[in-house]
Design goal:
Length: 81
């Protein structure tokens, strides 16, 4: 990783921590395997706000990652009937 990449990914992680503290982020982490990607699940009031959250991520804005926004609806959740 270059210094620029390392800095962007560090800012990415710090931003995720802030989103978690602010109650926006639900969970985030890397997938494991041959192709390493990341998943972040967060709440947003609408698609425009969700896209802004994604596009303003330092790793995406810096061109080090590609974001893909997908709406998600919980169908099954442990502890919930």
């Amino acid at each position: 990783m270059t210094d620029e990449e390392r800095a962007a990914w560090g800012l990415h992680f710090e931003r995720l921590q802030r989103l978690l503290a602010d109650g926006v982020l639900i969970l985030a982490g890397p997938t494991l395997g041959e192709t390493n990607t990341g998943v972040a699940v967060f709440e947003a009031p609408d698609e425009a706000a969700a896209r802004r959250i994604m596009d303003e991520d330092p790793a995406i804005a810096g061109g080090f990652a590609t974001g893909e926004l997908r709406e998600f609806r919980v169908s099954l959740l442990r502890g919930r009937r």
